[in-house]
Amino acid sequence: MEVKEIVKEGSISGIYLILDSQWRVARNGNPFAALRVGDKSGEIPLKVWEITEEVFAKLQKGKVIQLKAMAKNFNGSLQLEANGGEEFFRVCQEGEYDPSAFLPGVYGPKLAALWEVVDQTRKGLKYKPYRLLLAYFFEDDQFRQSFGVAPGAMRIHHAYRGGLLEHTVGVVTICQTVAAYYPEVNRDLLLTGALLHDIGKPQSYTGETSIEGTDQGRLLGHLMLGAQMVTEAIKAIRTTKGEESFPSVLEMPLLHLLLSHHGELEWGSPVQPALLEACLLHHADHMDAEAAKFREALRNHPDKGGNWTAYNRALKRSVYSLDLEATSDEWRGTGTGEE
């Protein structure tokens, strides 16, 4: 049983990844474990009552378990419950499960279509230095592999295999639209920034069945890592092709876009956007990330689950599921302007 299939109270069974595991003590003094388990279809809380330290030690984050539990309503939402004194789980060994069942991702034709957008965009730029810089990364097989499988974030948005590539293409597509609308925008600068704005994320995350932060990602952050990578790439281009191959006048604005794309200091940007292109990149990045949160909430909403999704922690609200296509056609016009 997948998590998305848990829609009512009753017994459940299935194979799930432990996403979080914490030792807690109830008001009556009895210990219990507060876990989150999930698969690629979603996640759900799991409470284990009457638990011992020996049992808890086996229920660690990152483990895959075969679970039998009860789904119960708690404050309007379903959660799983089990008794620690019973044999309610078994830790699965490598080879007993498919890692892709727990870390959803972008595969096949969709992945190829995303890469097509990246490659066509970078090859269509007018500025040769920016084309050289993008080729330095995206024509390197090792980088291309790591970028194509990296998640867009640990939890908040695009948190799945290939999520970084999907998010990048989303930001690029939005930037292409705004560049066409605002004639004063430097299109090459904006699109290069869009393609490279999260380039530090492959170094920031790791994990096969779950997404974890690397030491360098947690200590430096992907904005700083990305800026460092671009600076090193520009130095390498100048070393092999000459100083004139990448004029300094093109370097500083691009680095500014990378370092300011979170928009606000409290959101992790070392600086705030000071260029029109930086402003637009920030809002394109924010727009795609916010849209992804809404889309994921709706994707995880079960069929016949009503108009409102469960409370979404990332959005701090529930989302209304609107289905106008299911309503009557009587109020629809012909589309010709005639009544």
Brief descriptors of the model:
339 residues; alpha+beta; OB fold (Dihydrolipoamide Acetyltransferase, E2P); Hypothetical protein af1432; 2 domains; 10 helices; 8 strands; globular
Summarize it:
By secondary structure, the chain is of the alpha+beta class. It has helices at 53-56, 108-123, 128-138, 141-149, 163-181, 187-196, 215-220, 222-241, 248-260, 276-299, and strands at 10-25, 31-39, 42-49, 64-74, 77-83, 89-91, 205-206, 212-213.
Q: For the record, what CATH class of the largest domain applies?
A: Mainly Alpha
Described by its quaternary structure, the protein is: single chain
Extended strand count: 8
The portion of residues forming beta strands comes to 15-25%
Distance between the termini: 50 Å
Mean pLDDT: 89
Could you characterize what this model shows?
- This protein has 339 residues and is an alpha+beta fold.
- The chain folds into 2 domains: 3-100, OB fold (Dihydrolipoamide Acetyltransferase, E2P), CATH 2.40.50; 104-295, Orthogonal Bundle (Hypothetical protein af1432), CATH 1.10.3210.
- Helix content is 39%, strand content 17%.
- The protein has 10 helices and 8 strands.
- It has helices at 53-56, 108-123, 128-138, 141-149, 163-181, 187-196, 215-220, 222-241, 248-260, 276-299, and strands at 10-25, 31-39, 42-49, 64-74, 77-83, 89-91, 205-206, 212-213.
- The strands form 2 sheets. It has a 5-stranded mixed β-barrel with strand order 1-2-3-5-4. A two-stranded antiparallel ribbon has the order 7-8.
- Strand 2 (31-39) and strand 3 (42-49) form a beta hairpin.
- Helix 3 (128-138) crosses helix 8 (222-241) and helix 9 packs parallel to helix 10 (276-299).
- The radius of gyration is 24 Å and the shape is globular.
- The model has no long low-confidence stretch (mean pLDDT 89).
